[in-house]
Specification:
Elements (H helix, E strand, L loop, with lengths): L14 H39 L4 E4 L3 H14 L13 E3 L4 H11 L4 H9 L5 E5 L6 H12 L3 E7 L5 H4 L2 E5 L4 H23 L16
Parallel strand pairs: 1-2, 1-3, 3-4, 4-5
Helix pairs in contact: 1-7, 2-7, 4-5
Length: 219
């Protein structure tokens, strides 16, 4: 049996146990995600893939860590997920990045409308809005999703726990089976990576030698 490492001084006596507990909890969340949510992940990837194939774009929003996840996932679509699989850029926008726009909207209309306003300006039928909230209850994400539905924009929710209000507003929901915010966020990034990988492999099955090859996805 592998010996437990000694805890470095200054971290407290329970630091080693905290590391083990967190990582084992993360592993268990991912195991349950695979067992319980694989069909939902595949449905989410199909929703995004078909929108991109038809010329639509992916918009993503969330708060705090979920705002960072929004930007991370958008970057994977626009830049690249895997340098060993070069392909053309895919259209994805994080609605969390423009501080001038966010603060103007928050100041003029209230923080609950900061994403809704952008959906009104940028969203079109044929697009997908991905709303990320560990609780599914973030008011500004809920309003953005409701706005998207009213405008004929497909909706995808990444949530956790009981799912929250976002589930009722989403065409597809992936509800991470955990009540730990940290483990839900870790799972959301894994889901985002999977959606991007499945989309790019479907749209550009042969990749592109230069990364900028044919701009036309496979029909």
């Amino acid at each position: 049996m592998k010996e437990r490492p000694e805890t470095p001084s200054g971290l407290g006596g329970d630091a080693t146990e905290r590391v083990r507990r967190h990582l084992l909890g993360s592993i268990e969340t991912k195991r349950r995600l695979l067992d319980e949510c694989e069909p939902a992940i595949l449905a989410a990837a199909a929703l995004v893939t078909e929108a991109l194939r038809a010329g639509g774009k992916l918009m993503i929003c969330g708060n705090g860590g979920s705002a960072a996840d929004s930007q991370h996932i958008a970057a994977e679509f626009v830049s690249t997920l895997d340098h060993a699989f070069p392909r053309p850029a895919l259209p994805a926008i994080a609605l969390t990045t423009d501080t001038s726009l966010l603060t103007a909207n928050a100041n003029d209309f209230g923080f609950e409308g900061v994403f809704e306003r952008q959906v009104q300006a940028l969203g079109r039928p044929g697009d997908v809005l991905m709303g990320i909230s560990t609780s599914g209850e973030s008011a500004n994400v809920v309003r953005a999703m409701a706005c998207a539905r009213d405008r004929g924009i497909a909706t995808l929710a990444l949530t956790g726990g009981a799912g929250g209000r976002l589930v009722g507003l989403a065409d597809v929901s992936v509800v991470v089976p955990s009540r730990s915010v940290q483990h839900i966020q870790e799972a959301h990034i894994a889901i985002g990576h999977l959606i991007c990988e499945l989309a790019e492999r479907s749209l550009f099955p042969a990749g592109s030698a230069s990364g900028g090859g044919s701009e036309t996805p496979v029909a």
